[in-house]
Every structure is written in C-alpha cells, then in structure tokens.
Amino acid sequence: VDFGIGFGHSILCKLKLDGAAAQLLEESAFGRTIGFGVGFVCGARLRRRVGRGLSTPRGQQRERCEGEGPRVTHDGLILPVRVAASARLCSVTTITLALGLAFGQAAPAAEAPDPYRLKIGRSGEIAIRAGDMVDTATGRVVTPDDIAKAASGHRWVYLGESHDNALHHQMQAAIIEALAKTGRPTVVGFEMFTRPVQDRLNAWTLGWQSEAEFIESSEWKTQWGFDFALYRPIFEATKKHRLPMVALNVPRDWVRQVGREGLGALTPEQRASLPEQFDLTNQAHLAVFGALMGGHPPTGTRGESIYSAQVLWDVGMADSAIKYMEALPRYNGVMAIVAGSGHVMYGQGINWRIAQRTGERGITVTMVAATDSITVSRGLGDYVYVAPGK
What we know:
Helix content is 40%, strand content 15%. It is an alpha/beta fold.
C-alpha cells in the first residue's frame, strides 16, 4: 500500500485537478486514497485527454510539481485531469476510476455526456468543419469582422478557449483586432490575471515594456504558467491598438479556501469585494459542470464546496468586468473577455453572471477543436470556431 501511495503521488505530481478539487489531494484521507488508486490503476505513463482539444503544455507540470504537491490552475473546467507531456493516458475511464476511489464512488459504466452536445439554449445540432467559424443560428460561416459587426450594441464579447490551443488564441486576437478596427473603444478582460496585478498591465498596453519585462512584472509564470508564446498574438493586438487590459480573476487562494470549506471560508473582507448575489441553483450551469466532469460530479458537502469554487471564479470575473465598465458610465465600449470555454459555453458561466446582474446578454464565441468536423449543440455559443487538430 505504501508503495502504491508513493507511486501514485509521483504520478499525481504530473496531474492537475483544475479548481479547488485539487485541494482534495492536500488532505491526507483523500490524497492517500486517490494516490493509491492511481498508483494501482495506472501502471503506465499517463497523458490526459479529457474532452476535446485540451492538453498540458510540455514541461509545465513537471516544473510546477518540484518540491510540492499539485497546485491549482484553471482551464475553464474544474475537475478534468491534466497530465504532463511526458505521460500517456490509459483512458478517461482509468482517471474516472481513480477519482471515484477518492470520492468513495464506483467507476461509472455509462458513457459520459458530451459537453458539446447538451440540450441547453438554442435547440438542435449543427455539424461544423474544422477551420470554420459558424453562426450556430443560421449555419453561415463567419469571419472576425462579422463577429465585430454583430457585437454592435453589445458591451460583452466572450471568447472561450482551450488554453493550450494556439489556433484559439490566434482567432481571439483576430476578433479583438476586428473589434478595435471598428473604432469602438475596446477593452480586453483576462481570466489569466488576478485582481492584485491590475496595476501592472498598463505599461504593456502603453508600449513601455519589452515582452520579457511584461512577463516578469505581470508575474505571468505564476499567475498563469502556460507558454506566453501561445498568447502572444493577443498581447500583440492589445499593444498595437493600445487596448486597456483588465485582470478579471480572483486570487487563487480564495478558490482553494472555498474548495475546501465552502463559501463560509471567505473572510468578511473577501466577501465584501464580491457581489451579494452568489446563486448556486442555475440548473443549466450544473448540467454543464456535470458533463465536464464525466457525468458524475461529486456530491454532498464536498461536492457543494467544489461547485462553489467553480462558481466563485465565474462570479468573481463577472464582478471585475462589471466594475471596470461601470467606472466609465459614458464609455460606449465593448469588453472582449478571454477565458476558458468552460467559463462561457452555453452562456452559463461569466456571461450568465453578467446577464443576471445587468440584463445584458452579450455574444459568446466558443472554441473547440476537431481533425475533420464536429457536431455540436446550437446552444454551445452564438458562434463556434473549430480549430483544426485534436
């Protein structure tokens, strides 16, 4: 058993549990159980492939795990498993079994729901070819300029990504440039930065820093950690058009607190910086959350805490975006929000939280990946971009 736990922990150092669920591994009972489960089940090297088009940048997980247990990062999904590039995934079922051991549940036999084909929002499905961006209402192939035109009259454009997909970031940059070229004031909000670094972002926009200086001053490697080159097209667009950037995310230790102990773990000062509305009853969002976790989200008090941590991200980022725009009452601008697809898909993440408070719907562009074509729900986003590749 000790060998199994030790071996399991060495593998778990290559795994990522996005969101507060990672904290389960820091608590002995859960950490030992999942450590033994993975150590027992995974006799080979692993590589995660949960969902479509999601993977971990080479070398990052190994670097982050030196001398420490798993840490919290975020890919728009709260519980999918990330594995270092040096690993190989036996199967999604294997990882689900390991998680099932940790939660005291048996591995599910039924096939998990496809997160891209949920019956939420606009009815029906649509097949989209790799390389195309499509209006899901009409099936028409569109361009970034079309998105910018459709954004007229909207203050929010949500650009959902897979963090490690370079083509997604190129498309986000193209849409941001198209918005800027309309002449309308454009702001870019980033999931990648937490509120405390807000005052360190302007120097880049104003052209006062080199790339290396910006990476250091913004604490990119600890704030986010993905290869900066993936996001370079977006940052080049913000500098070229001198677009203000907004750090949307809440500090990650808040998320860890909530993931362990629930919303009551927030201090009065932390709670005061968030909106009073903290709705945990959105059934559509719960369905998305469940699908992203293989159809078997954790339950009970622990499950509620994990879900609350996911909601905290959405609520916090929505709050940061609203506060920025409300500080400029005569500002007839638009904010492009760059975030993981799990935060915007089906209009149930950040976008739902903003709509709940402002009544403004905005435009959602959800980005996925496929080698040929993919069939998705028309409700997945107002527009869906399919990047070629896995």
